[in-house]
Design a protein that fits this description.
This protein is an alpha/beta fold and about 350 residues long. The chain folds into 2 domains: about 170 residues, 3-Layer(aba) Sandwich (Aldehyde Dehydrogenase, Chain A, domain 1), CATH 3.40.605; about 140 residues, 3-Layer(aba) Sandwich (Aldehyde Dehydrogenase, Chain A, domain 2). It has 12 helices and 12 strands. Helix 8 links the parallel strand 6 and strand 7. Helix 1 packs antiparallel against helix 3, helix 1 crosses helix 6 and helix 2 crosses helix 3. The two termini are about 15 Å apart.
Length: about 350
């Protein structure tokens, strides 16, 4: 199975996902939601749409032209410990390992077994040579390299056990938005998608905004009222009720529109249903602040992507295949294992 065969198989997978019938999609959505209540129908559909976009011939061509992939299969086994915070979040690592020609020894997250097993099975149906290239295991011992995604606490555990092997170990990250005061209602709606997609559970979800004037918050809260449907999700609203009660008991200043709480904080990672905000005086000052905290930030969004190193509002949850988690080039790491 040469490089062209591997790429063709992933293109076919993207086409398969894109051409799912409504009945097939509904069944998959139901199964995924039954396995994890956070995986709503909308969340699953968006995740599959994102994978299909990644696997378009144009996206794969733009991405892979910058690499010299191993023409033949290798016998190296790469242990992949997958996260399960959003649907199929481990797919990109799996794809990178297989495109690089290695064997993927994967430990699926208990929160995301349905979708990942379905994707693996689809890939094997497309080309059964992948059957011997994907191993699903509970204990990833004695692998040649490791890719692990988890919390700051689990990262310390991963470093202890896997640090002596070639590895990529990811920790907690979040995303932020920069407002310059010229935003329109349309901009707020796009930003709302960056905040509420996957109920804020992803590292690419915006958990904090930076702005120059607190008065803009009222306009922002009014504009995003259309996202109040998130409060219909029992787990989300439980988080909202809990966080609101804590703030009220403690008498902490905050803003609230019935489903999202805004609170001033210098921290970056906010609880589910809470959005932190912080005022800034100048763009230079904010650039320095964000650069000094780069290890905590997955991506920055701003109006039209005008702020330094940012992407436009509304695009945080639509990463291209070259938008690597933590900014670490996974494919380059895997290619050089040989």
């Amino acid at each position: 199975m040469n490089v062209a065969d591997r790429i063709s198989a992933f293109v076919a997978l993207g086409k398969r996902i894109k051409e799912l019938s409504s009945e097939e999609l509904e069944e998959l959505q139901w199964r995924a939601k039954n396995g994890n209540n956070w995986f709503s129908e909308e969340a699953v559909a968006h995740a599959l749409e994102g994978i299909s976009f990644m696997l378009s011939p144009e996206s794969l061509s733009s991405w892979l032209r910058n690499y010299s992939l191993n023409e033949k299969f290798s016998n190296l086994r790469v242990g992949v410990l997958m996260a399960g915070n959003i649907p199929a979040v481990g797919f990109h690592d799996l794809m990178c390992v297989l495109l690089a020609g290695h064997i993927a020894s994967v430990k699926l997250s208990s929160s995301d077994t349905i979708l990942m097993k379905w994707i693996i099975n689809q890939l094997i149906q497309i080309d059964d040579r992948f059957a011997s290239r994907v191993e699903q295991e509970e204990m990833l011992k004695n692998k040649d390299a490791y890719i692990a995604t988890g919390s700051d606490n689990s990262a310390r555990y991963f470093n202890y056990y896997f640090g002596k092997y070639p590895h990529i170990i990811r920790q907690n990250r979040t995303s932020v938005a920069v407002l310059n005061g010229t935003e329109t209602i349309r901009d707020y709606l796009k930003l709302g998608n960056d905040i509420f997609q996957y109920y804020g559970l992803g590292c690419r979800n915006v958990s904090k905004i930076f702005l120059k004037d607190e008065q803009q918050l009222q306009e922002f809260l009014g504009a995003i009222q259309v996202f109040e449907k998130v409060a219909a999700h029992h787990k989300y609203v439980n988080n909202y009720d809990y966080n609101k009660s804590i703030l009220l008991v403690n008498g902490e200043k905050h803003l609230d529109n019935g489903f999202l709480i805004l609170r001033a904080s210098e921290s970056f990672v906010s609880p589910i249903s809470v959005l932190f905000y912080e005022l800034y005086e100048s763009q230079d000052q904010l650039e320095k602040l964000l650069e000094s905290n780069a290890s905590k930030i997955q991506c920055i969004v701003s109006k039209d992507g005008d702020f330094k190193n940012s992407i436009p509002f509304g695009t945080a949850q639509s990463p291209a295949p070259w938008d690597y988690a933590d900014g670490v080039d996974t494919l380059e790491f895997l290619i050089h294992l040989n």
